[in-house]
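Much of what follows relies on a compact textual record of a protein's fold. A record is reproduced here so that you can trace the correspondence yourselves:

. . .
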Amino acid sequence: MASRVRDPALADRGALQIEWAEMHMPVVAKFIRERFTREKPLQGVRIGAVLHVTKETAALVRTLAAGGAEVRLAASNPLSTQDDVAAALAREEGIEVCAWRGMNEEEYFSCIRWVTEWRPNIVIDDGGDLHAMLHREYPEIAASVWGGTEETTTGVIRLRAMEKDGVLKYPAIAVNDARTKMMFDNRYGTGQSTIDGILRATNILFAGKVVVVAGYGWVGRGIALRARGMGARVIVTEVDPIRALEAVMDGFDVMPMIEAARRGDVFITATGDKKVIRREHFEVMKDGAILANAGHFNVEIWVPDLEEMAVAKRQVRPYVTEYRLTDGRRIYLLAEGRLVNLVAAEGHPSEVMDMSFANQALSAEYLVKNRGKLEPRVYVVPREIDEEVARLKLKAMGISIDTLTEEQKEYLSSWQL
């Protein structure tokens, strides 16, 4: 199957979107791409990628191709593809795409299967569906993969579960856990883009609202910080006592979801787990409560309970579904419970994805260079890659920093004063 996109005629418009993103992604689209173009470290390598097909992803894919790779790209979410970007990528040499906005479940997994059956050497995933399919349905192909990377917290959890169960068949780099990814993409990127998605979908005023944030990892921290910055009163729910304590020390109210459900105007899930907001919570929510998800999969807000409870359902705005309950209360679900920042908006700002995708490009190069030397387990991004991404980002921003003198290095490495 050749590339499959919604409308190839959208390619010119998509090219402009990619140009805009790349102007704000100098690490991936300038520094790394220039070196990759000269050195061709990925020459002849097949890279299978399952990512959100956005203008920022296009910058990464074009850099991989510039390094000599052949790339097949499928969507990591049925509703996140930017169709013009997919069309623009599909017409570039060395890149094939299977993605369009609004895929059904069968179409979604058929595109991932299209990537898998191509027998890629390196796999790049966002959420773990590609890794899971390789191991569950194509173990013989998985055994031939040189290595993989993973973009999200959810996907890294799945990879570590595979490693724990002794079934992981290739080395995998947890790109999500790089400091230049999680501290910036997860916190600042998701924090801003989630609020952006909610505002585009609803046009509500955040000031004065009670916003409930479920989960206080890097994503939850970013959302809570941005919501407070817009004047919202923020409640955090957590199951981890250390994170809950951190939220308290950061000045947020912390309580169980069943209590927060009675108070909240807007609910945002960011846990990576399922059934975080469910029937008992819906039963006590205010009339007009708004539900949004910032976690990878559409399981955090348990929509089956909402469907069972509703006596009427209608779409009142793009990406806003109203559920009317038996007592007349209305609950509004955004983006079908999927990633609100990518469904109702454009995802993370290009500037922050620059660092995340720089880690992806350099990790792919690392896996190629170390083919056959790594065991089938989950690895952190090598420190030298993480720090190189930070250095290049600072360089792009025109910022210089100090360096240690030899005397200072010796002092820090010795136990004798």
